[in-house]
Amino acid sequence: MSSSRVAYLGPVGTFTEQAVIQWDADGVYEHRPVASVGHAVADLQSGAAQAAVVPFENSVEGSVPATLQALLEGDGVRITGEVLVPVQFSLLVRPGTPRESIQVIATHPHAAAQTRDWIRSHLPTAEVVPESSTARAAQAVAEGRYDAAVAAAGAAEAYGLVELVAGIADREGAVTRFVVLGQDRSSVPEPTGADRTTLVAHIWANRPGALLELLEQFAVRGIDLSRLESRPTGEGLGEYCFWIDADAHLTEPRLREALVGLRRTCREVRFLGSYPRADRRTATIPEHAEAHVYAEAHRWVDDLG
């Protein structure tokens, strides 16, 4: 058995497990399913796991609040990579269950939102109840608690169910982005030219121009933001922080100067990691933001005396 473990949002049969298998294709790690994103982060912090894989955002439903909260509270944790998993939902039942007998369907709220129209059209009288994961819903169906589950097809084999209907998502092409977490004493992955940096910025106060001031730190340095989301800080109504994905690596002078600017103008900045993009899409860097231009500008200032 491997001496290294990766914790992931379980149980067996989740899309997160698919992400783990995709990330650990060579089987270097022992795969350890846990009950929640918080448990995965806690395992990483305690040393019970050397890596963790958790869902971060979905192309249809947006970010995963439980993951954002766990990362905010997870001191000593960094993002070291990401995995993209296409999302395909199936209707799973116990063997011998006819469609007309389905009255209660269990699934994760994100899955429910992405299959709402199909269920309304094909099973209009069925009640949809939330579970902590699609695989947990499949497990509950196997235990006889519900009539059907909306889950990944792989959960059928894991829990002795059958796939009654495949491909029930309302919209094709949905993708979930998972992040790989490591301890912050781990080194930042080397730049690849197709990298992403994730940050959380807390402004000093909610005032006119505060967001513009934050965005200018990136704009004037030619850094594209592939994700910008405001989230409540929990400190009171109207108090928000900003989650940022910047298409640049920590080693790039343009990002380092942007971080200096954020540090000066924000109450707090959390660096959550620089890592390769899963889609390998390279950033377009304006000529004035190239590394050699920054180097020449610093030499010019140094020569001023």
How would you portray this structure in words?
This protein is α/β, with parallel strands linked by helices and 305 residues long. It folds into 3 domains: 1-87 and 172-184, D-Maltodextrin-Binding Protein, domain 2 (3-Layer(aba) Sandwich); 90-166, 3-Layer(aba) Sandwich (D-Maltodextrin-Binding Protein, domain 2), CATH 3.40.190; 187-287, Alpha-Beta Plaits, CATH 3.30.70.260. It has 10 helices and 15 strands. The strands form 3 sheets. Strands 1, 2, 3, 4, 5 and 11 form a 6-stranded mixed sheet that branches. A 5-stranded mixed sheet has the order 8-7-9-6-10. Strand 1 (5-9), helix 1 and strand 2 form a beta-alpha-beta unit. Helix 8 (210-219) runs antiparallel to helix 9 (253-265). The radius of gyration is 22 Å and the shape is elongated. The model has no long low-confidence stretch (mean pLDDT 93).
Give a quick precis of the structure.
With 305 residues, the chain is an alpha/beta fold. It is built from 10 helices and 15 strands.
